[in-house]
């Protein structure tokens, strides 16, 4: 069963599916020993970083912004092409602050990131010092809330892989071994299941679309509506096109994303397309070729 953990971060990784990083090899080893491949880790922006030079926007402090489904494959952050952006990303000796990485299987951004302490299941004992340096497991109630949050507000990102290692194939194997299930559904790995590309519209005949892949498109779209008010437009499944394996579905979704990149106008939101006719997507889908 998938376990849920959290760790404190100093900001969002934006539109990049970055690895989970650590300041020391020991902290990474503790994380590996505490988890299993396929577990979920939620990134919570720190309110009071230990370094006084760190500048975190007030609107991000204390909010749940990132999610990783982790593997136990390790690497150095330099191998991912990750470099210091802010002055506080480097230590006094000039080295990168978080040089140790865990390769993710999947990564997400959380839209409309909520306050961690406002979530159902958060208690006075949830915050720990351990979460500052490595991973902290959460209890069953908070875990269920975080999974629901991921289902409703998560936006999947393309996973980064080390540029000096042959890791992409490993990530695809892990995706097959650890398919992702939400909302209490315990789904056994099914590498033979057919995956589809779905197109969902916000309201009937809408031109705000979600394009993604799933083994059960109807269930996936139903999850989008779980936290929407009945008075708000609902997501409606427009297209459910069978593709094949998870790898093939990911490839098709990637090609559609590249074809309609100009319609991705929502910040930090790679799955929503604004002002796009779903029939245009359907026409393009008919011409996509899988390598």
Strand content: 25-35%
Provide the structure class: alpha+beta
Task: Tell me the series of helices and strands, N- to C-terminal.
Answer: EEHEEEHEHEHEEHEHEH
- Count of β-strands: 11
What is Rg? 19 Å
**Any idea what the shape is?**
globular
Layout of strands and helices, then pairs:
Elements: E1 4-9, E2 20-22, H1 25-34, E3 40-45, E4 64-76, E5 100-110, H2 130-133, E6 136-137, H3 140-153, E7 154-157, H4 168-177, E8 195-202, E9 208-214, H5 217-224, E10 235-244, H6 246-259, E11 272-274, H7 278-285
Parallel strand pairs: 1-3
Antiparallel strand pairs: 1-6, 2-5, 3-4, 4-5, 5-7, 8-9, 8-10, 9-11
Q: Which features characterize this protein?
A:
globular; alpha+beta; 7 helices; seven-stranded mixed β-sheet; 291 residues; 23% helix; four-stranded antiparallel β-sheet
């Amino acid at each position: 069963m998938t376990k849920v953990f959290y760790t404190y971060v100093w900001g969002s990784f934006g539109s990049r599916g970055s690895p989970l990083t650590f300041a020391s090899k020991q902290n990474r080893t503790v994380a590996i020993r505490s988890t299993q491949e396929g577990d979920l880790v939620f990134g919570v922006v720190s309110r009071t970083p230990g370094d006084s030079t760190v500048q975190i926007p007030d609107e991000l402090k204390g909010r749940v912004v990132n999610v990783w489904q982790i593997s136990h494959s390790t690497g150095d952050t330099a191998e991912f092409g990750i470099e210091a952006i802010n002055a506080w990303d480097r230590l006094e000796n000039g080295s990168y602050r978080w040089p140790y990485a865990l390769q993710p299987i999947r990564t997400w951004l959380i839209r409309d990131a909520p306050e961690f302490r406002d979530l159902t299941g958060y208690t006075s004992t949830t915050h720990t010092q351990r979460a500052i340096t490595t991973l902290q497991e959460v209890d069953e109630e908070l875990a269920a809330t975080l999974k629901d949050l991921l289902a409703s507000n998560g936006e999947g990102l393309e996973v980064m892989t080390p540029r000096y290692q042959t890791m992409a194939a490993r990530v695809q194997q892990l995706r097959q071994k650890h398919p992702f299930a939400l909302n209490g559904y315990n789904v056994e790995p099914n590498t033979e299941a057919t995956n589809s590309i779905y197109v969902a519209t916000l309201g009937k005949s809408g031109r705000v679309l979600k394009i993604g892949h799933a083994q059960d498109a109807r269930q996936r779209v139903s999850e989008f509506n779980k936290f929407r008010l009945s008075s708000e437009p609902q997501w409606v499944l427009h297209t459910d096109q069978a593709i094949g394996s998870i790898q093939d579905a990911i490839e098709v979704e990637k090609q559609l994303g590249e074809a309609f990149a100009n319609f991705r106008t929502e910040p930090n939101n790679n799955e929503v397309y604004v002002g796009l006719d779903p029939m245009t997507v359907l026409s393009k889908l008919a011409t996509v070729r899988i390598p």
